[in-house]
């Protein structure tokens, strides 16, 4: 066991440090540019140095580096230290781009990858439907090939950012006679067209980040399909294997704990400082036990990734573990808020750190959104039990297999 | 960055695990569990032969000269197999002498402890749950007079490392005059206790700055490692049971309620592996964090072990509540890991104080 990165990596860290030092924040006239332009300027330089979009070929705008999870981690650490812009976190960059790189046609990569990673175009994900949540493959939105166009009808839901998106990558049933999973195709759709209507869905926090998307004779060219007809389910399972950020979630829970400690320092319980209350102290310390376990589990994964080995059971449980830590932290935050727990979530922006009481209220609710998004906690438990512990698969879900 | 065990450490776990399977399968474990002493001389000899009872003793005194992490991964495997006997107290006594003894004292005691020919233990607790070095009140003098509680395997130990006022440590030999032992009716029959009463008992003091705090912190780490191994075993027992026990015409592992309970148990087990690793690693390589992470790890992993043990009884249904079912053995190991050397609540309070909170 050795928690140092080693001299070669520390040398690399020095290079990165020097780069950030010399390039962020921008200086001179560039410092007066709007923030998104500043970020784009910095990113272009970071790409030229091989620090961002390392797994994306240069011809699509990436820096095309040898995969190296440790270097990727060092870059995140050093950029993070100076609040320098990192890779754009949109769903297009995180999900569509890796999918296109693995499964897309050459012209699709040409057309979409570069503009997506620079943030020129924004994407939304058309997966869930009102009747198809955990059982996603039961989706009903239909696509029919008419001449040289797909004509699409149906409804998508929980579509984050659909109101801002230029395009949607979308799962659509194109082969009605095929079995459940084999009838789905993966289509790319222009959002700016008459056949698409986006209606905001107000979240329990009061704000509206996600939407319903209605497709009424929406159209997309016949070749805007990734993979072949009926391969959409497999295409959608294409995951990003390169340079997974295995300790990012743990860093967030750590930051969350720090915020909780700060809140406890400001709060009172029964007229006394909360940090003098033994119950509060015990709960804080107990949460730290989970946070530390999360942190070192992240290091285990990082090590396995660096060696190109599978991390096993722990990899299946990181999402549920984050969720549960979020629940415990939220519960404590509400108790620390005391009577301010009667306030609304206001217009609080959601981030790791809550800025005020209303920010904490928003977070209190938002941790539930995290628990549900991308596979509910109960679905995660199924995955752990079936794939992790080898228990029998759910009879009801013993679906017409995806082959 | 290599946060993983070495091949040597994995081999060590494998060797110890094989020895436990050969020498102390559960059928044999149960005879020790139900027997008079909780100790098995033959098993001790086997473990001594593997070198694990002297793992962290310097090589010049016959030990293997390895680190606390090596000791901890061994403790995990022993915990997995619910190894009965004096391992914990023995390695802590050896650590105290190795780090606090004079050259003469080390020469006198360590070789026997390293080979396992002599068994050591530690006498820490005083009345009212006073486990911490700064709470000890046993007076320091030419002889020892006073009482120590919950001394693991005090009856079979050849020497006892005793904590006294000011966090000082003394060594008492078995046949010294003025020692009286009383059996404690302990819950964990794989790790028995005696209460030890000293009356003008001759002793030798370990040097100034003797490492009582280090003994405590390494003790916490070994309890966390044991708890991780034990909780892992209980999880496996429950999964195995769910795959074989049938009700309503199918194995009960088909039922989602049970699957979710087992998934939750797994979530109480697997993330703790890295936590106890780091706590052990810190004892040698991150000394400024060592006390705090040891406290956090012990509190957390022992508490999770206890929860997993309660869930394991439930997951086995009626049989889980019987003496016949093996779950109870690990259930009681969890109770030991949770209460020996102080409670998780005390560990947590200390962890906050150490963070300046």
Summarize the structure.
The complex is a heterodimer of chains A (403) and B (357). With 403 residues, chain A is an alpha+beta fold.
Q: What features would you describe in this structure?
A:
- The complex is a heterodimer of chains A (403) and B (357).
- By secondary structure, chain A is α+β, with helices and mostly antiparallel strands.
- Chain A has three domains: 7-81, no CATH class; 123-236, Butyryl-CoA Dehydrogenase, subunit A, domain 2 (Beta Barrel), CATH 2.40.110; 248-388, Up-down Bundle (Butyryl-CoA Dehydrogenase, subunit A, domain 3).
- Chain A is built from eleven helices and ten strands.
- In chain A, the strands form three sheets. Chain A has a four-stranded mixed sheet with strand order 1-4-5-8. Chain A has a four-stranded antiparallel sheet with strand order 2-3-7-6, with no helix packed on it. A two-stranded antiparallel ribbon of chain A has the order 9-10.
- In chain A, a hairpin with an 8-residue loop joins β6 (196-201) and β7 (210-221).
- In chain A, α4 packs antiparallel against α5 (106-117).
- The longest helix of chain A has 30 residues, at 278-307.
- Chain B has twelve helices and nine strands.
- Chain B has three domains: 7-115, Orthogonal Bundle (Butyryl-Coa Dehydrogenase, subunit A, domain 1), CATH 1.10.540.10; 120-205, Butyryl-CoA Dehydrogenase, subunit A, domain 2; 212-354, Butyryl-CoA Dehydrogenase, subunit A, domain 3, CATH 1.20.140.
- In chain B, β5 and β6 form a beta hairpin.
- With 357 residues, chain B is an alpha+beta fold.
- Chain B has helices at 7-23, 26-34, 41-49, 68-80, 87-100, 103-115, 212-244, 256-269, 272-285, 287-315, 327-339, 344-354, and strands at 120-123, 143-152, 159-164, 168-173, 179-184, 193-202, 204-205, 246-247, 250-251.
